[in-house]
Design brief:
The complex is a heterodimer of chains A (about 575) and B (about 130). Chain A is an alpha+beta fold. Chain A has two domains: about 475 residues, Up-down Bundle (Sodium/glucose cotransporter), CATH 1.20.1730; about 55 residues, no CATH class. Chain A has 25 helices and seven strands. In chain A, the strands form two sheets. Chain A has a four-stranded antiparallel β-sheet, with no helix packed on it. In chain A, helix 7 packs antiparallel against helix 8, helix 8 packs antiparallel against helix 20 and helix 20 packs parallel to helix 23. Chain A is globular, with a radius of gyration of 25 Å. The C terminus of chain A is likely disordered. By secondary structure, chain B is mainly alpha-helical. Chain B has one domain. Chain B is about 60% helix and about 5% strand. Chain B has a two-stranded antiparallel ribbon with strand order 1-2. In chain B, strand 1 and strand 2 form a beta hairpin. In chain B, helix 2 runs antiparallel to helix 3. Chain B is rod-shaped and about 100 Å long. The mean pLDDT of chain B is about 75. At the A-B interface, helix 5, helix 12, helix 14, helix 24 and helix 25 of A face helix 1, helix 2 and helix 3 of B. Chain B: Keywords: Membrane, Transmembrane, Transmembrane helix.
């Protein structure tokens, strides 16, 4: 699907981001401007901004792709991404705001009064941020590949450059307005097309999506294989075209694709006949539409463990994401932080109604993606496939623009917070120069990682970042806020005991081929064992090292939990006298 | 306000005249010399008890909202495994898993969040009344 309109839409979004960044530079020149502005931000603006930063490539294209491929088990992604905010609201939102921390390392230092705890939290925040940036860049590559046919690395490079330059020049830096606008742009870009698509589906006779048949080609479909792909055909099909099958070169001729596994060469182009059942990429279970619509149809081993691990990672991981935490600082006080989070919950609920619809329609209209394995592209391909002519192309352009907005806004938020952590805690370079060097580093590392990763679905990769956050920074926040027994040694031990195994498991899954052995699921969905590990190590070690409770913990607790308007800032009795 | 202590002696003295004074200033006197805020700021035992009560109340509220929501959601995969027929049931034309996870969950999350915010703010108000009381 190459469409001029889509290219224009992507360009507009990229240029718009740069322009708004440059404009924002003039608006928010000094830190005090920024602070003053932040105090006047209403919960609605703030919540839209959080939504804008949070809805990433995984939400915009990834969830629909996973549901399209693996069925209702993947609905736990949107549910978990939203429920994560409920956990954040009930356990973290107000105390985190009251702690006065701007970043997670700030919170670690404010609560534990220890540079070491801060250091460990910084390194983990950095690792989580990079893990999270990687799928954004891969998603950008995929989008550009789908709409223009450009190689995968082009999109990743464009996003990395636009974001890095933008952040370096000072634009985009916590400009609430821009991020808030991004939420509404993304919501429009995903909602408007799906309304039209559903109307078209109704006009076509509202064909059932759960028939007991394999997905089949609706018309003669020409499919290009941009990578070497191993596919599995359920029945033999007569195909036509040019390319390589099982090492046999075919030049513009017919070929009978027998049932079973076949290796299709890179760059092959074949036309599959109308009505034939769609072969699947070999790593995907072959499901009829009826069995696809059932739980545990994903064909992975130990599906129940996988689902629970996913639930734990997404429910608890949200609070540990570096770019989400920053936004809480722009609330004037703890109660406003709570109200903001509640609104975020509502905004996300509306957005997440859409991706499953794309995934389900994809089973009927774009089944060939099950064969090429580019399931993440389903959101991008559907509009032009279902609606002929300029209408479909315009809707496709809208979706592509929205997807690009998603990559840009999430990546910007991440790069800003990572650069902050890098310049303050790792490189120890102050000033504008230090921040700029850190920004480049924050952008280059994930860009380099895109060249070596094994191309797993973007939502799965994001799931790994959540798992690391849930097993390291979540225990730090939850136990740090709600228990005064946690010691500095306990905090460090807990973060490492949960974070290091989760991170290792994530890297192993991303960069090596673990095959189909029994432990694969333990590595690709580590949260179910690393999260309890992190929590229990942190608590038990704290009980064993009681003498290392940080000094002044009672005052810190007052600061975290007491409403601001009572004059309980723990600074002595003067305030109380003034008030009495 | 004090009367001079009666002089020691067996014979009762004749009744004495006593001067009753009031503070010279017209400004009101400090109404709550030992309010809860001061107890907390001075880190007295009582102040610590106030704080512990607040933290405990908020922790219990947060954890119970979380547990109710997470348990009810967390039981779903188990239910679908134990009773696969549930996955085939239809609600409003949608399969039961789809209906529950795509449609029903989000309003429930919102409702739980709204309830939590209301309760948390109420317990903070009560805490404020408690510590500001003389």
């Amino acid at each position: 699907m190459t469409s001029g309109y889509a290219i224009v839409a992507v360009l507009i979004v990229a240029l718009g981001t740069i322009l708004v960044g440059a404009y924002g530079l003039r608006v928010s020149r000094t830190t005090s401007d920024f602070y003053v502005a932040s105090r006047t931000v209403s919960p609605w603006w703030n919540a839209s901004a959080i939504g804008g930063e949070y809805l990433s490539a995984a939400s915009f294209v990834g969830i629909a792709g996973l549901i399209f491929a693996y069925g209702p088990d993947m609905l736990w992604f949107p549910v978990g991404y939203t429920a994560g905010y409920l956990v954040l609201l009930t356990m973290v939102a107000a105390p985190l705001r009251r702690s006065g921390a701007y970043t997670l390392p700030d919170f670690a230092e404010a609560r534990f009064r220890s540079r070491v705890v801060r250091g460990v939290a910084s390194v983990l925040a950095l690792a989580i941020g990079w893990l999270y940036l990687l799928p954004q860049l891969e998603g950008a590559g995929l989008t550009l590949n789908t709409v223009t046919g450009a190689p995968d690395w082009v999109g990743a490079l464009i996003v990395a450059v636009v974001v890095t330059v933008n952040v370096m020049s000072g634009g985009m830096r916590s400009i609430t307005f821009v991020q808030a606008f991004q939420y509404w742009l993304k919501l429009t870009a995903i909602t408007v097309p799906i309304v039209f698509l559903i109307v078209v589906w109704q006009v076509h006779g509202a064909e059932s999506m759960t028939k007991p048949e394999y997905p089949q080609f609706r018309q003669d479909t020409k499919v290009t294989f941009s990578h070497q792909t191993t596919i599995h055909a359920e029945r033999s099909i007569f195909i036509n075209g040019t390319g390589e099958i099982d090492g046999l070169r075919i030049e513009n001729a017919g070929h009978v694709l027998t049932d079973g596994y076949h290796r299709i060469g890179h760059g092959s182009e074949f036309t599959f006949p109308r009505g034939a059942p769609v072969p699947h990429v070999s790593t995907m279970a072959h499901n009829t539409n009826e069995s696809w619509a059932q739980p545990e149809s994903s064909g992975q081993r130990f599906p129940l463990y996988g689902v629970y691990s996913l639930i734990i990672a997404t429910f608890l991981g949200t609070m540990g994401l570096p770019h989400v935490i920053v936004r809480f600082y722009t609330n004037p006080n703890g109660s406003a932080a709570r109200r903001t989070t509640l609104i975020v919950l509502g905004l996300l609920s509306v957005f997440y109604l859409m991706p499953p619809l794309y995934g389900a329609l994809g089973r009927l209209y774009t089944p060939e993606l099950l064969m090429t394995g580019q399931t993440d592209a389903v959101v991008l391909v559907l509009p032009a496939r279902m609606i002929d002519g300029i209408g479909g192309q315009l809707l496709g352009a809208l979706v592509a623009g929205g997807a690009f907005a998603a990559f840009l806004s999430t990546s910007s938020g991440l790069v800003v917070s990572l650069a902050g952590v890098l310049s303050q805690d790792v490189l120890r370079l102050g000033g504008v120069r230090g921040f700029r060097i850190s920004t480049v580093l924050a952008g280059i590392v994930p860009l380099a990682m895109t060249f070596v990763s094994t191309g797993m679905p973007v939502a799965d990769m994001v799931g790994l970042a959540f798992a690391v956050a849930a097993s390291s920074l979540c225990p730090l926040l939850m136990l740090g806020i709600w228990s005064s027994r946690i010691t500095t040694i306990g905090a460090i031990a807990g973060m490492l005991a949960g974070g290091v195994p989760a991170l290792t498991a994530g890297l192993v899954t991303m960069f090596t081929d673990t095959g189909d052995s029994w432990h694969t699921v333990l590595l690709s969905r580590p949260a179910a064992w690393t999260v309890p590990l992190g929590f229990s190590v942190m608590y038990v070690v704290s009980l064993l090292t009681r003498r290392h409770v940080p000094p002044g913990v009672q005052r810190t607790m007052v600061k975290l939990h007491a409403p601001e308007n009572l004059g309980l800032d723990g600074s002595g009795s003067t305030t109380a006298d003034e008030r009495s | 306000m004090t009367t001079p202590p009666p002089q020691g002696g067996s014979a009762p003295k004749p009744t004495q005249r006593v001067v009753v004074t009031s503070p010279r200033t017209r400004a009101p006197r400090a109404r709550r010399p030992y309010s809860g805020t001061r107890e907390i700021n001075e880190q007295s035992e009582l102040g610590a008890v106030y704080m512990r009560t607040l933290i405990k109340a908020q922790r219990r509220l947060g954890l119970s909202v979380c547990l109710v929501v997470c348990t009810s959601l967390g039981l779903l995969p188990l239910l679908f495994t134990i009773e696969p027929d549930l996955g085939k049931a239809q609600v409003l034309g949608l399969g039961l898993p789809w209906f529950l996870l795509c449609v029903a969950t989000f309003p429930m999350l919102l409702l739980a969040g709204w309830f939590y915010v209301r309760q948390a703010e109420r317990s903070e108000r009560e805490f404020a009344e408690l510590v500001e009381r003389p």
